[in-house]
Structure formats: structure tokens, C-alpha cells
Amino acid sequence: MRAAADQGYALAQHGLGFMYFQGECTKSDPVEAARWFKLAAAQGLAGSQSTLAMMYEKGVGVERDAAEAAKWHERADKAS
């Protein structure tokens, strides 16, 4: 998963984000999860955009930021 994510594959980046978010096969690290979700979200992956929006809403792995949350929700809506 990591090799594919490092090569820029959005689905792998999203998957790795969830692995860090949930602590699957690795220690839970919300900051690292957010980093991978951002990479996938920037490539237009709606699932990562929605997850990132939630993280900004709740301040999980990133600073709470309503404007960033709204931006990612809007992008996710357009991508779906």
C-alpha cells in the first residue's frame, strides 16, 4: 500500500490514510492520516475529500477549521 501511495496513486493514498486513521497494521496517527487524505483529495478523490472535511470539522489530525471543512465538503459534492 505504501509503495503505491508513494507513487501517487490516489486510492492507495486514501487507503493508507485510513490505515493510519484507524490504526490498522500500524499505530494510529491522525496527523499522518490527514497528510495522506490531503494527497488523495487533491487528486479529486471524493471519499478523501469528505473524510478530510470531517477531520477539519472535528479537529482530528488537523486544527479545527470550519472554512477548510466547507471547502472540502464542496469539492466532495462536486466530485460525486
Question: Would you give an account of this structure?
Answer:
It contains five helices and no strands. By secondary structure, the protein is an all-alpha fold. The longest helix has 14 residues.
In short:
With 80 residues, this protein is mainly α.
Summary keywords:
single chain; mainly alpha
Helix content: over 70%
Q: Low-confidence stretches at least 5 residues in length (pLDDT < 50)?
A: none
- Biggest beta sheet attributes: none
The count of helical stretches stands at: 5
Counting helices, strands and paired strands, the structural category is: mainly alpha
Shape: flat
Order of helices and strands: HHHHH
Q: Give the percentage of residues in beta strands.
A: under 5%
Mean pLDDT, rounded to whole units?
A: 96
Distance between the termini: 24 Å
Number of DSSP strands?
0
Radius of gyration: 12 Å
SSE layout and pairing:
Layout: H1 2-6, H2 10-22, H3 30-42, H4 46-58, H5 66-79
Helix pairs in contact: 2-3, 3-4, 4-5
